[in-house]
Amino acid sequence: MHLCLAEISIAVSIILYLNTAITTQMGYNPTICHLLCDKIMTQVRKMLVTSALPYANGHLHLGHLVEHIQTDIWVRTHKMLGHQCISVCGDDAHGTPIMLKAEQLGISPERLTTEMKKSHETDFDAFGIVYDSYYTTHSSENQALAEKIYAQLQARGDIVKKTIRQAYDPEKNMFLPDRYVKGTCPKCGASDQYGDNCEACGATYAPTDLVDAVSAISGAKPVEKESEHYFFDLPRYERLLKEWTRQGHLQTEVANKLDEWFASGLKQWDISRDAPYFGFLIPGTQDKYFYVWLDAPIGYMASFQKYCEQEGISFAEFWGKDSTAELYHFVGKDIVYFHALFWPALLAGSDHRLPTAIFTHGFLTVNGQKMSKSRGTFIEARRYLAHLHPEYLRYYFAAKLNGRVDDLDLNFEDFVQRINSDLVGKVVNIASRCAGFINKHFSQQLADSLKEPAFYEELLTVKNQVSDALVARDYAYAIRLIMESADRINQYIDANKPWVLAKDPERLPEVQAICTMGLNLFRILMTCLKPVLPKMATAVEVFLNDEPLTWSRVNTPLLSHTINDFVPLMVRVEKEKIDAMLAES
């Protein structure tokens, strides 16, 4: 076994600790030595994690939050495990939609994207979603990286110039970007689809391939005009991509979907757009811009580069071709084609490392249906926050996310039941029941020993299972384990009846022992829930007068310890607030 300097330092700490324990006769504490040994045996992982970039032409909605909450829980889990887990994101700030939205508002695209970035960061902060770096694709770092990668691809012969015929709006006198042409999918026949990819079947195509196409800007029937465009020669990377997509970097259902696209043949990818356009000018041209899907994923790199400059971290250590760090992308199933085919090919062609894994999730539905403004179910993050606690949503999404590509349904009847029954009725109930007796009869002092040490050890085993489930992104299983444990703890309190024993002064020590046990078991549950409910966990740390909860610290119970007064940690959901939110939406 080869030890790094940090591990050698910990080993020396163990030796010094044992020497001090012997020479001063202070006594040997196995818990301290166990924690120090744990640090040696746990290899610290270097991890970089990204979420898809929110588009900077509107406020966040609950659909965005599925992915960002999923990512945040995963990152928090790994940070609690002691790993170097860096999360980056930012705003996707280029494209015709932003240009047109700014024009509509009478402001510059730069001002629009700056305001949207502030809005997104405010909403993320309210939901406890934390990124080590949150940046924008409209940055000097991103432009330099995009131009460098383009030059590398060009030098390899991967950039091809072709004259194409594309959709043109005769009323607006502009070429139409893919998302501004709508029609029927040429592959599956789904109606009302955009001009670049089908949300129903996932197929990609040219806007001119759509059946019965219309301009989404003016409603006019597009005409076709010629223009010279720049293409990335994706088919040159087909062999590499076929191998990479079958090496465990993707969920099985995603890899199977990619096989369908391989079967139909990869096509050269148009990476250019005509003026007018808000984005980066392609070097050597006067009126051609990088397509937003070229510089958007490069935005992950730019956001991380900004973080490296601030923290003195090596960029190449995470993005270099020979990097041994881990790179993970969380994305929705509607953009998996770009992330699992175009992006790895761009990275390979520019001598960068490929992702360790891409984690794909499904869409959010509300009450079983696609989010809809007319039905009041297209709910912006800020609208939700005006009525409901942000950690309700974090918990609910966690209870339904399982690491697969399934769609997630936000059913508000189920939402109320889960929050009120699970969080308030089970978890918080344990703390409120036990704290009352400790505060009233024992001056907030816990007992000096555990009444049921075997029960405590059982829950430590569950804690490890929860940690494993969170790492595997099976949050739903983790929540089931936690709630099953909460049921057992409440049953333990019910069976021991501290409220009956408290009536007999001679049996008060038993009450203290029962409630000390209950609060220590509650502490294990809150350690498990900390990645899901970080704000509630912080309140619990204050209530228990405890240091920050970690996976390892909770191995040692709180004994002969003074807690603080209990304060309500979570209140019940009121259906009236949900009704008011839906009415406003």
From TrEMBL:
Limits of the Methionyl/Leucyl tRNA synthetase domain: 47-434
Xref: InterPro entries: aa-tRNA-synth_I_CS, Anticodon_Met, Met-tRNA_ligase_1, Met-tRNA_synth, Methionyl/Leucyl_tRNA_Synth, MetRS_core, MetRS_Zn, Rossmann-like_a/b/a_fold
Any one annotated GO CC term: cytosol
Identification of the protein by name: Methionine--tRNA ligase
Transmembrane segments: none
Residue window of motif 'KMSKS' region: 370-374
Organism (species): Legionella oakridgensis
EC numbers: 6.1.1.10
Family stated for the protein in its record: Belongs to the class-I aminoacyl-tRNA synthetase family. MetG type 1 subfamily.
The protein's enzyme class: ligase
Keywords: Aminoacyl-tRNA synthetase, ATP-binding, Cytoplasm, Ligase, Metal-binding, Nucleotide-binding, Protein biosynthesis, Zinc
Cofactor(s) the record lists: Zn(2+)
GO molecular function, one term: methionine-tRNA ligase activity
Positions annotated to bind ATP: 373
Pfam families: tRNA-synt_1g
NCBIfam families on file: metG, PRK00133.1
Gene that produces this protein: metG
